[in-house]
């Protein structure tokens, strides 16, 4: 007998289980394609009563040889043939029974896939919408079809494992830092500081969180992948905007007009970036330069207030009291990470050698986290300096624009 179990559904992982034994029936789990070939089944012809079929799937997935695969239930098959022969049409009760059987078969199939897992896929075998970096040759996840499968894949090793874990751990780290910061008593951190820094924590946690979610679920389906891709872009804009708020707030602490102008400017640019990234066109490959340009412009808009600090108070003051050095380091880290990501280094030089670990996207993720930590350190220094200086003189606050 030959036993073949095939699951090939667009919303489920590509899974093919085959085991050849002589004189076994051919069985397909596809509800639209159930085949039972009894032509060589001597036992079936000799005893037409109850027949037992066991499908051995252990060869590839290590499951119990006695575990039945999800398939059209025998009861349903028997009922269908009986009714087709005797009455020609099914009664309402039979139809309900049939519906219940189909639901059970569907659930069995999901459980089956859940237990069996999925196979790694080569880049060439991926659907077009999952193809991103052709220098990563092997070890990709196929389309997984359900959120459960996607989240279970966090604990398996594949091309996205490093991307998922870097920003998941980064998100947990920044959430922990935020909880610690906001739980400080007012004698240590005032409400004003908590509100201003909340913009930074909000941006960092959402950016890392959206990125972690995107890398986890983007193989769910094309629609879900596209949605979370947009959230990933939104996260970058939110982190950039949130990072600017404490820096501009404390940097221009006594310069009301400049503070309002620059905060409004970054707010408008960031909002524009979010709106643009909501369009489906934005994620298409042909808009890659435009996409990169939007986020680089957003980040580099910080050059304008930085120059303002230098011109107004001198280079030394800008470095010492507005953390220009730390913020420059942060910018260098972001840009270096982005260049490595865009150049797809090192996998470009050694295709197939960095499929799982140390690929460019993972390095970019690590640079983003380090840059955000450097930025946090920088804005803490600016806030500390400003708060130890005491209140602004009222004349400065109103009239000093420079
Ligand atoms: Zn990423």
Automatic annotation (TrEMBL):
Alphabetized GO MF terms: metal ion binding; signaling receptor activity
Polar residues compositional bias, start-end: 20-32, 44-59
GO BP: adiponectin-activated signaling pathway
Binding site for Zn(2+): 215, 361, 365
Location of the protein in the cell: Membrane
Region named Disordered: 1-91
Keyword field: Membrane, Metal-binding, Transmembrane, Transmembrane helix, Zinc
Pfam family, any one: HlyIII
Cellular component GO terms held in the UniProt record: plasma membrane
Transmembrane segments: 164-183, 195-219, 231-250, 256-278, 290-311, 323-343, 363-380
Low complexity composition-biased segments: 78-89
Membrane topology: Multi-pass membrane protein
Matching InterPro entries: AdipoR/HlyIII-related
Regions of compositional bias (Basic and acidic residues) in chain numbering: 1-13
Domain of life: Eukaryota
Annotated family: Belongs to the ADIPOR family.
PANTHER family for the chain: ADIPONECTIN RECEPTOR PROTEIN, ADIPOR/PROGESTIN RECEPTOR-RELATED
Name this polypeptide is given: Adiponectin receptor protein
